[in-house]
Specification:
alpha+beta, Alpha-Beta Plaits, 3 domains, four-stranded antiparallel β-sheet, three-stranded antiparallel β-sheet, 7 strands
């Protein structure tokens, strides 16, 4: 008897639940869709760079791999000594790439012939004192470096500048949303979503080559830092309703 009573109670509970769901379904289906406007906002902030990264490399060649590596190590050691002196104690140096590989001569119908070996060492120099850029490049060239693969200007505090660009982009998007809503006889009720698209881009100078020059003929390498333009783009979706 207890089992039958329990089964009857469970069946009544299940029936009540199903009826409640069926009764609430029309109410949910009758809810009006949210009216919205989707706009984009873009802004640019100009800033003076206060940091630079210079990629300085040394490539050496020899008949034997050991000789190529040893000569490369000797020249790199001389370059690092000169660069550290020109850059000052606050500069940061790190090796970003090293390779030791054979050189081949290709002839039709024959297996590639090894003609020697090349060793390359690429060191990245980070400077916060931009007045020393020319000194560092010239010191590297005169001490044995034969590559300057790129110079990248950047900011020590990128977040602050990026936040300013985002703020201006958001204000631009919200202003456009208000204008569009007013033109359609609507008003902005609330923000539904905001998305950031893209990322700040920092210009990078083209690769350049330097060669050791006699001290008597030394001419400072001209490098202009210019300015950086940090862009921010956002997409804003707002809910709108009749203005009256």
């Amino acid at each position: 008897m207890r089992r039958r009573t329990s089964g009857a109670v469970n069946m009544r509970t299940l029936t009540s639940t199903v009826l409640a769901c069926l009764l609430s379904a029309p109410a949910l289906s009758q809810q009006a869709p949210v009216s919205s406007i989707r706009v984009s906002g873009a802004a640019q902030v100009t800033a003076k760079p206060d940091r630079v990264q210079i990629d300085i490399g040394v490539t050496t060649r020899a008949d034997r791999s050991a000789d190529a590596g040893a000569e490369n190590a000797r020249q790199v050691d001389a370059v690092l000594t000169a660069v550290k002196k020109a850059a000052g104690p606050t500069a940061a140096l790190k090796t970003v790439n090293y390779s030791l590989s054979p050189n081949y001569k290709y002839q039709a119908g024959h297996e590639p012939l090894i003609t020697g070996y090349s060793a390359s060492n690429l060191v990245q120099v980070t400077l916060d004192d931009l007045t020393k850029i020319s000194n560092v490049i010239d010191a590297a060239g005169q001490s044995g470096a034969n590559q300057v693969q790129g110079i990248q200007f950047t900011l020590r505090d990128q977040d602050a500048v990026r936040a300013d660009a985002l703020r201006k982009a958001a204000l631009k998007a919200r202003g456009d949303a208000d204008v569009l809503a007013a033109a359609l006889g609507l008003k902005v009720v609330r923000v539904l979503s905001v998305e950031e698209s893209g990322a700040p881009q920092f210009p990078r100078m083209r690769a350049m080559s330097v060669a050791a020059a006699p001290l008597a003929a030394k001419v400072d390498t001209p490098v202009e830092s210019g300015t950086l333009e940090i862009a921010a783009d956002i997409v804003l979706t707002v809910e709108v309703a009749p203005a009256r």
